Amino acid sequence: MLTMYSTSWCGYCHRLKSQLDREGIAYDVVDIEQDEASAAFVRSVNGGNQTVPTIRIVPPNGGDEVVMTNPTIVQVKQALAGIGVPG
């Protein structure tokens, strides 16, 4: 449901991962340097740039997905609450 597109060297990604862990929010991590299709997705939502962290939230019961670039933990929690998932 929540996917973080990341790289191994991204400090912002490491910080957001720690915050998600602390909040007990489940997520999957995809390293865009290891997955070209994911890198292409990140470029498609960031004006051609491979900006990470990029977060993709797919609602469990359908509906519009949410994509955010370099969000704060507060923004992630708000997005989850907005689709009815406790964060």
UniProtKB/TrEMBL annotation:
Pfam families: Glutaredoxin (PF00462). This is Mycoredoxin. It comes from the Bacteria. It comes from Actinoplanes flavus. CDD domains: NrdH. SUPFAM superfamilies: Thioredoxin-like (SSF52833). NCBIfam families: GlrX_actino (TIGR02200). The lineage of its organism: Bacteria, Bacillati, Actinomycetota, Actinomycetes, Micromonosporales. Residues 3-57 form the Glutaredoxin domain.
